[in-house]
């Protein structure tokens, strides 16, 4: 089954699609299942629908800034090698509220190398993938805003690091695809195609995982040793599962040392934590053509249901290791630890309107919700939703406009712990209140290889409290302005 063309927002990098599926057999079908080049980006790039078979579009030297690089790219491709590079530059400013108004800069450069074993030495359906990141700049979220949801997925600790290193093998005409090595889970699991268009990090790997797992789990910019299997029993159904180490940087759950400082090179290859199991079922449907005829404009959708289970040890949110209250003045300060953790989730991406069959003018919705245990997780429930408008700007068919909202609800014991602290006078932060944020963004395809994305975000209950825990002063709602520039070389 040929995949329907991705949303027009992805065509802002029309030539980038040639890089997304660069290694093919003679009949044009993928010899293995290569990652999208956008898999090295945490957010801001919409993804094609998850379908078992992709057809490579025509090669377009204009899709990347360096083109054929003086003939180097075609020569490497004949030997099974593809190198992709992307550069991201962001400027952010806190206009009001938060902790301290003012601007910050962050940026990232990502390089990915893929080697097709069939072209390289005749071994069919094999793919070696290696990627690396150089992350720079400062954190507007941590230094100026004080929010629990980072304004950008690139708002991470500075480092130059290995990202992923794995070997993938296809079986049964690639109906089954297996990867083994150091794997990042958030590029395939828990992903919403439409949500990933937005820049706020919560629309990528949400609080339910980034705050509740060790170092945020195997998610950008970290990976963990493990294995991932993807099976396509029928065209519309994809079943995925993975087993990885649950602690990519080997650190304790609570630490004053940032995860990127504990493992600055990305080569810790930890096996010291628990084991993380994650599974997901994806169903792709065309709602319009199921209830009408083939002349009806296609309204494609992807619905996902998944969950994870972690065998590690996780801290209680209210009680210490002696059974007393963590907020008590005489507490040991060391939480009681519980064995194992779990989470369930659902994701829905659905196109709800198309101007005409084959039209690039579309409107799509997304909803994602998670739920887990409230005793050992700071965030027990989370929900995000939004809408994207593709091709609506006259003369700008490749551009996308989007608006999205999200919030995370605290677990019962985290709420009780905050109340304990207020009652016992051991904290100035006040009661916990779900932080909410809304994002309005516009993604403009300046050229096939250059994307400019101005962005506005507004936060309520910044940091999940009403007061700065250090000073006791009120924290105002935060208004953030920013711009993202992504270049594909």
UniProtKB/TrEMBL annotation:
Region of interest called Disordered, as start-end residue ranges on this chain: 43-63
Pfam families, sorted: OprB (PF04966)
Entry's Gene Ontology molecular function annotations: porin activity
Signal sequence interval, chain numbering: none
Domain of life according to the entry: Bacteria
One GO cellular component term noted in the UniProt record for this chain: membrane
UniProt GO BP: carbohydrate transport
Protein name (database record): Carbohydrate porin
Similarity annotation: Belongs to the OprB family.
């Amino acid at each position: 089954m040929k995949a329907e063309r991705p949303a027009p927002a992805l065509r802002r990098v029309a030539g980038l699609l040639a890089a997304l599926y660069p290694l093919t057999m003679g009949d044009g079908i993928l010899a293995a299942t290569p990652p999208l080049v956008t898999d090295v980006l945490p957010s801001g790039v919409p993804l094609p629908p998850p379908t078992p078979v992709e057809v490579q579009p025509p090669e377009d030297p204009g899709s990347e800034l360096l083109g054929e690089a003086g003939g180097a790219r075609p020569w490497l491709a004949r030997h099974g090698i593809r190198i992709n590079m992307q550069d991201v530059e962001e400027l952010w400013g806190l206009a009001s509220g938060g902790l301290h108004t003012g601007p910050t800069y962050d940026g990232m450069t990502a390089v990915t190398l893929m080697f097709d074993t069939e072209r390289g030495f005749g071994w069919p359906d094999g793919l070696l993938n290696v990627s690396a990141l150089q992350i720079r700049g400062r954190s507007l979220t941590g230094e100026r805003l004080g929010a629990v949801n980072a304004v950008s997925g690139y708002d991470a600790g500075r480092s130059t690091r290995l990202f992923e290193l794995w070997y993938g093998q296809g079986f049964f005409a690639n109906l089954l695809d297996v990867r083994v090595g150091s794997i990042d889970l958030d590029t395939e699991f828990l992903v919403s195609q439409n949500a990933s268009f937005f820049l706020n990090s919560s629309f990528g790997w949400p609080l339910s995982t980034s705050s509740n797992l060790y170092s945020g789990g195997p998610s950008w910019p970290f990976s963990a040793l493990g294995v991932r299997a993807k099976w396509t029993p029928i065209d519309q159904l994809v079943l995925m599962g993975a087993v990885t180490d649950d602690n990519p940087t080997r650190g304790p759950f609570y630490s004053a040392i940032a995860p990127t400082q504990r493992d600055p090179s990305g080569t810790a290859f930890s096996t010291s934590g628990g084991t993380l199991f994650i599974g997901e079922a994806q169903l792709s449907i065309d709602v319009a053509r199921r209830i009408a005829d083939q002349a009806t404009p296609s309204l494609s959708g992807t619905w996902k249901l998944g969950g994870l289970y972690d065998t590690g040890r996780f801290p209680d949110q209210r009680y210490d290791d002696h059974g007393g209250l963590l907020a008590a003045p005489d507490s040991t300060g060391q939480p009681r630890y519980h064995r194992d953790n779990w989470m369930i989730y659902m994701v829905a991406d659905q196109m709800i309107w198309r101007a005409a069959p084959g039209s690039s003018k579309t409107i799509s919705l997304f909803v994602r919700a998670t739920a887990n245990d409230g005793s050992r997780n700071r965030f027990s429930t989370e929900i995000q939703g939004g809408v994207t408008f593709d091709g609506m700007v006259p003369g700008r068919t490749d551009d996308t406009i989007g608006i999205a909202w999200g919030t995370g609800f605290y677990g019962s014991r985290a709420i009780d712990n905050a109340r304990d602290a207020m009652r016992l006078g051991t904290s100035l932060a006040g009661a916990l209140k779900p932080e909410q944020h809304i994002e309005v963004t516009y993604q403009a395809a300046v050229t096939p290889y250059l994307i400019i994305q101005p962005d506005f975000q507004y936060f309520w209950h910044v940091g999940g409290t009403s007061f700065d825990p250090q000073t006791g002063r009120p924290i105002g709602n935060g208004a953030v302005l920013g711009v993202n520039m992504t270049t594909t070389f």
